[in-house]
Amino acid sequence: QTRLGIWLSNKRLVQEHNSANLGFTVALNKLAHLTPAEYKSLLGFRMNKAQRHAVKSNAVAADSVDWRTKNVVNGVKDQGQCGSCWAFSTIQAQESQYAIVNKKLESLSEQNLVDCVTSCYGCNGGLMDAAFDYVIASQNGQFNTEADYPYTAVDGSCKYSAAKATSKVTGYVNVVEGDEADLATKVSTLGPAAIAIDASAWSFQLYSSGIYDESACSSYNLDHGVGCVGYGTEGSKNYWIVRNSWGTSWGEKGYIRMIK
């Protein structure tokens, strides 16, 4: 299938979808020319069947929350043609959590995780829990900054420098699997979370604006690591504010609102 052929078939999908007024729009974005295999390579969340211990929060969730308004969320980054979404998901959660507690928003290194986390597969995928576990066990809970360890979007050798380490993680709280009320409570009371979603549908690939509601979207077959920075309501629809790592030209300035 030629690039032009792929783009033209996506153009038809975009026109058909947007004329149906389904509550969200799609567009011929920078991913519109990718083959299915190329697109799939961006989705690097590797599910682990092991059950993680999670305790349901008893706190009360706010009606809505958007951590982007509180100076604790960095600008959207771009993972490039590398399945490192898991590293971006991990880092955005760490950046925001550290900023909430210490009133200092730093830009940390995803490449540090891509190159160093032995239990993950760099550009071929990984798991946010495994990344945090590695950092706690092998990097004394610390990270290098983006400036000291810049992103290359390819697998490299581990160049972590303890002398330049910053930030700190001592542990993390899991959300009860599939429990959206628990996620809302923890995002409301603790801050942005590292979450996994099903991003396999073409409508996610080409998402442009609105509240994403895709019948083909699975709650169980998760393939993409992202961030959840809040939630809200528009009309009668409740939605999550999800931070992607495909640059600001994708979606709503790099974000997607997903139906709650």
TrEMBL record:
<feature type="domain" description="Peptidase C1A papain C-terminal">
    <location>
        <begin position="61"/>
        <end position="259"/>
    </location>
</feature>
<dbReference type="InterPro" id="IPR025661">
    <property type="entry name" value="Pept_asp_AS"/>
</dbReference>
<comment type="similarity">
    <text>Belongs to the peptidase C1 family.</text>
</comment>
<dbReference type="InterPro" id="IPR013201">
    <property type="entry name" value="Prot_inhib_I29"/>
</dbReference>
<dbReference type="InterPro" id="IPR000169">
    <property type="entry name" value="Pept_cys_AS"/>
</dbReference>
<keyword id="KW-1015">Disulfide bond</keyword>
<dbReference type="GO" id="GO:0008234">
    <property type="term" value="F:cysteine-type peptidase activity"/>
</dbReference>
<dbReference type="InterPro" id="IPR038765">
    <property type="entry name" value="Papain-like_cys_pep_sf"/>
</dbReference>
<protein>
    <submittedName>
        <fullName>Clan CA, family C1, cathepsin L-like cysteine peptidase</fullName>
    </submittedName>
</protein>
<dbReference type="Pfam" id="PF08246">
    <property type="entry name" value="Inhibitor_I29"/>
</dbReference>
<dbReference type="InterPro" id="IPR000668">
    <property type="entry name" value="Peptidase_C1A_C"/>
</dbReference>
<dbReference type="InterPro" id="IPR013128">
    <property type="entry name" value="Peptidase_C1A"/>
</dbReference>
<dbReference type="InterPro" id="IPR039417">
    <property type="entry name" value="Peptidase_C1A_papain-like"/>
</dbReference>
<dbReference type="Pfam" id="PF00112">
    <property type="entry name" value="Peptidase_C1"/>
</dbReference>
<dbReference type="GO" id="GO:0006508">
    <property type="term" value="P:proteolysis"/>
</dbReference>
